[in-house]
Every structure is written in structure tokens, then in C-alpha cells.
Amino acid sequence: MRSGCSGSAKPHRPGNFPWTAPVPQNEHVQTTSLDRALLAVFAIFGLNGMIFASWAARIPAAAEALGIGSAGVGVLLLFSAVGSVASLPLAGAVAQRVGTANAVRLGGLLASFAALVIAAGLAWTSIPLTAGGLLVFGAGIGLWDVAMNLEGTEVEHRLNRTVMPQFHAAFSGGAFVGAMIGAVLSAVGVSLPLHLIGIIVIAVVLVLLIPRAFLPDTPAPDHGEAAAKPSSFAAWKEGRTLLIGVVVLGAALTEGAANDWVAKATVDGLSSSETAGAVMFGVFVAAMTATRWFGARLIDRLGRVRALRLCMSASLVGLVLFVTAPSLWLAGIGVILWGIGAALGFPMGMSAAGDDPALAAGRVSVVSTLGYTAFFVGPPVLGFLGELWGLRNALLMVGAAILLSIIFAPAAAERRKHPHPAKDPAA
């Protein structure tokens, strides 16, 4: 567990890019460490996105290699979902015990080992082996995801400014790179097993090296007020927190459905090539990345509620356009709107859950659990529906979740921040 800050006062670092701001000389060592940690978190988010997209962008190739349809792919994705959801409640405890850097390493190594198993399963046309690999892959990605978000939260706290949307933009940017790598390798005929093995080598090296720049873990302060903090489970009884969770659930399902099914829906619904499917997925991720990077200005100008409703409405329009488009280009416009709309719901939900620092841990835990459950479990269900109705038609079910996010968006409204406790006069 980390202490909240390194001193009685947090350094203020103005500017859009905090690592470029000048700092007093006596803060040089701490600032250098913080700058390195900031860049490391950006890199580890990007790497996580690239690893995830290396699988997601080539789901059609996996389906072809195993000779399965949408329902079969849905079963495989369910294994990945179970692994991720099962690891989420344990990830925080693991990070507290071994530190966020080691938790990221452990998650990355698990995911890399799992990718090797998946590659073997695809090469040997073994559905059980592939499913087992996806189970471990989901667990590794889930642990890695929670640990890097914890590190990102700590860096953001030390900077005393919001950077979490940019971290998520780094994830989306990494996913875009992974998708484009998948498209290129697909176009030149590189098999998915060989693709995964190459990604494994990159992942293992980087996941071991990058966390060296993370902030050092420090023991949690042993103060009497810690015992007075409410239980994290109390947040499950809070109506506002649960409604924020519903908002995030809709946003997460919107993103997760696109991650897992845009490529295959393009191939199946528009009779396009696997390469076109991978490119379409890349277009979605690119739209999300740009919106996450620049979206803070929109939130500041409109407020969370109006920004949420605008984004989710764009996502709904884009989803319907993608599903009904008769041509690849029109579907591409739909995917762009879908990506723009899906970009900010999750980060805004996290911000809303953390409005009160004293209660943030429990509330963020609730919202994250609901969001990630939808993100990982929803897409496999869509796969089963896709077998019955066609994959593009099944994606329309996501529209119901988007409507819920729009309806309950007021739950995420900004709340007046509680004043900080008075500082120690001796500080």
C-alpha cells in the first residue's frame, strides 16, 4: 500500500504536459522520479493495449483456424472473461502484497505464457488448449490492468492534476498499434501462432524492464483514522455509486463489444477480408485514442453529464450506422462515431466514483467491478446471440446498455469537493 503523498504539500506542476513544467531545485530528485514513473505508466498502458489487440484484431483468424463460428468464438471469449473477472477481486490484494511493479510483471508474464499456450492450441487445432490459454490470458491481463491503474492513480495523485484519461489513451494507442500489426501480418500471410510468439518476446522484455521506473512502494501509514474508514463493501449499498456503475457498465460494454466483434462483424456482415476487419478495428481504436487524449477539454466545458450524454449518443448513432450500413465506407463512419462515443464513459465514471477521496477506494472498486464484468462477459454473450441473429444484428443489443448510460448519466454529476484537511502548522 502506498502513502498518499511524499510530503505535507504536493508540488503543483502546471501545463498540459506535466513533465515539461519547471520545478524548484529542491524538488529535482522527486520530480525526476515522478517524471520517469509518468512515462513508465504511459508505456505500460500502451503495452497492455498492444498485447490485448494482438489477440482481438485477429479473432477471425482464430475462428478460421479452429473451424468455429460466432457461438464457438463466444465460448472461447467466455473463458477469457472468466479468467479476468476472477482475477479482479484478487488483483488489489496481490498489488498490496508484492507492489504494483511486481504485480504488473506477474500479470504480463502470465499473459505472455498464456499467449504461448494459445499459439500452440491454434497450431494444433485444439479448442480445449486454446480455451485454457485464454483463461490464463484473461487472468494475466486482469491483474496487469488493475495494477497499472493503481500505479496511474498514485502518479496522478502526486502530480495533483488529472492524467488518467491520457493513460487510457495510451492503452487505446497501444491497441491501435497492435491492430495495425495484426492487419499487416494478416495481409502478408503470417499465421496467428507465429504472430503471437513474436508479441510474446516483446512483451516479456518490456514488462520486466518498464516497471523499474514506477514509484517506490511505501508502507501504508499506521494512523488511528485508518481504522475509522468505512468498509469497502459499504459502497455496494450506495445508490449513487451503483448508478455510476450502471453508466460505466454501458460504456464498458460498448467498448468491449467493439474490441471483440468489430473485426469479425466486418468480415461476416460485409463479406470483407480479414485484413479489412483488422483495419476496421484499428479505426475504432484510433477514434477512441484521439477522443481520450483531447476529451478533457470537452468535459471541462460541458460538465460530466452533458459530455456523457453527447458521447454515448454519438456511440449509439455510430453503432446503428455500422450495423445497417450497406458498404464498408459507411460502416467505417459508423465505427468512428462508435469509437468517439465510447471513449470517455469509463474515465468519467472513475472520476465520479472518486469525487470524495475518503470514500474513493470502495466506490472505485464497485464501479470497476461492474464495468469490467460488462467489458469481459458481455461480448461472449453477443457471440451466442450472433449465432442466432447474425453478428451485426446482435450488436444492436449494446444499444440498450447505451440508453441506460444516457438515462443515468446525472449520477456522475460533479460534486463539490470536500475541503482538504488543515495542514500541520509545523509543516
From TrEMBL:
Residue intervals passing through the bilayer: 37-56, 68-91, 103-123, 129-147, 167-188, 194-215, 241-258, 278-295, 360-382, 394-413
Cited PROSITE patterns: MFS (PS50850)
Location of the region described as Disordered in the Swiss-Prot/TrEMBL record: 1-24
Domain called Major facilitator superfamily (MFS) profile: residue spans: 34-417
Membrane topology: Multi-pass membrane protein
Pfam families noted in UniProt: MFS_1
Organism domain of life: Bacteria
Keywords carried by this UniProt record: Membrane, Transmembrane, Transmembrane helix
Chief place where the protein resides: membrane
InterPro entries (alphabetical): MFS (IPR011701), MFS_dom (IPR020846), MFS_trans_sf (IPR036259), MFS_Transporter (IPR051788)
Subcellular location: Cell membrane
Protein name: MFS transporter
Source species of the chain: Arthrobacter gallicola
Lineage, broadest ranks: Bacteria, Bacillati, Actinomycetota, Actinomycetes, Micrococcales
